[in-house]
Amino acid sequence: IAGVETRIQGKRYTDRIRDRILGLNAGLAAEGQISFARSIGHVERTRWVVAILAAGALALIAILFLVLERQIRLREQVAGLLQGENHRLDALVRERTTELSDLATYLTNVREAEKARLARELHDELGSLLTAAKMESGWIARKLGDAPVAACLERLARLDKVLDAGIALKRRIIDDLRPPLLEMLGLVSALRDLGEEFSRDANEALNLELPAADVDLDPTLALAIFRIAQEALTNIRKHARARQVNLSLRLVDKHRLELTIADDGLGFQTGQTRWGHHGLAGMKHRVQMCAGEFTLASRPGAGTRIVVRVPITAAAAPEIADQEGIACRT
Known about the structure:
This protein is of the alpha+beta class and 330 residues long. The protein has a domain at 186-330: 2-Layer Sandwich (Heat Shock Protein 90), CATH 3.30.565.10. 70% of the residues lie in helices and 11% in strands. The protein contains seven helices and five strands. The protein has a five-stranded mixed beta sheet with strand order 1-2-3-5-4, with helices on one face. Strand 1 (205-209), helix 5 and strand 2 (244-253) form a beta-alpha-beta unit. Helix 1 runs antiparallel to helix 2 (149-177) and helix 4 runs parallel beside helix 5 (219-240). It is rod-shaped. 19% of the residues are buried.
């Protein structure tokens, strides 16, 4: 009996040990599964984090690439614009330099031509008139004692005509140098007289459209407008072969004055004509000194139209007065 009880107790003890071992194994297995699951979760999270970081890095690289590419394109565009602007400015500088050179040459030539013309008129016409007057006065002085009164009176009449011609020549030269009518009566009267003189000399129909009353202008500005009109009419008389000429002066508004000279003559191709041709450079230069606008329109066979707009309040540059006698005749 004692041996049986001992075996039963041993079996029970063995069963308890086995149950405890099984419980320990089950706990270890559960902990292993939990630890494995945690490891798997950590790996998954790490993989997602790496993927997100990689995607962010790629996106950042792409953005940086796009920004860099855009900056490169902008630099190229700016460089292209700067190069184009430099070329345009270079061309403009060359054009202006050529214009200034042509203008300087033109003004020099015109000055010399004016000097030569004045010298020729003074020598040929006024000189001959004064010589004739001297001869007439000498004859009268010699013959006064014994010559008949009728002969002396005839010689005195001839001397009077010679002196009148000399006075007229003097007046014409002075008018060319500085028109007194402009100073005494104003621009409108001076333009009207200029138009009447043009009609007499050129035998061309001239239509004048002038204000009824004179326009109150700075003297140098009025002189510039007069010289431009004088130059334009001289060109028409010499080159245009026009049948009808229109000259108008009007106030665009309270601050601007407009001069228009148009003809139905031969015309010319403006793009192929240098500014020094026919005194155009002189007219344009006068307008620029008055801070105005100069517009030229012409076509072969369709005549020429010149429009000048100047601000009334702008005082003309002093150089305008210094250039009198220039570009009056081309």
